[in-house]
């Protein structure tokens, strides 16, 4: 099982980024996927979640209306579109899946929101 995130970077407040996570090693379309983030000195927190078919999504309250999670089951990829970014969104972002009962993580991608 492999999850590889990309798309992070430095962006000004109010800007946008789209994160991608390409997965392999399991039947992607059968699994719900999540994005988490972890800022320095803080616990890792759930940002967004999407069902295996993509019909159901859930968001952390502070990102509702600004972030959108989506997936392409043909490309084995899950996305996180982030708009109106704020300094408090700065963190390492991880995609994640529960595979064989174990939560599995990618290596993460850094998002820094700063002027």
Account of the 3D structure:
With 115 residues, the chain is an all-beta fold. The protein has strands at residues 2-6, 9-11, 17-24, 33-38, 45-50, 57-59, 67-72, 77-82, 91-99, 102-105, 109-113.
- Percent of residues in helices: under 10%
- Tell me the fraction of residues in β-strands, as a range: over 45%
Contiguous uncertain segments of 5+ residues = none
Mean residue pLDDT = 97
Secondary-structure element series:
EEEEEEEEEEE
Mind summarizing the main beta sheet?
Answer: 7 strands, mixed
**Global structural class:** mainly beta
Discrete helix count? 0
Shape: globular
| Strand elements, count | 11
Distance between the termini: 37 Å
Radius of gyration, CA atoms, in whole angstroms: 13 Å
Keywords summarizing the entry:
115 residues; mainly beta; 11 strands; 0% helix
What's the gist of this structure?
0% of the residues lie in helices and 53% in strands. The protein is mainly beta and 115 residues long.
Topology (SSEs and partners):
Layout: E1 2-6, E2 9-11, E3 17-24, E4 33-38, E5 45-50, E6 57-59, E7 67-72, E8 77-82, E9 91-99, E10 102-105, E11 109-113
Parallel strand pairs: 2-11
Antiparallel strand pairs: 1-3, 3-8, 4-5, 4-9, 5-6, 7-8, 9-10, 9-11
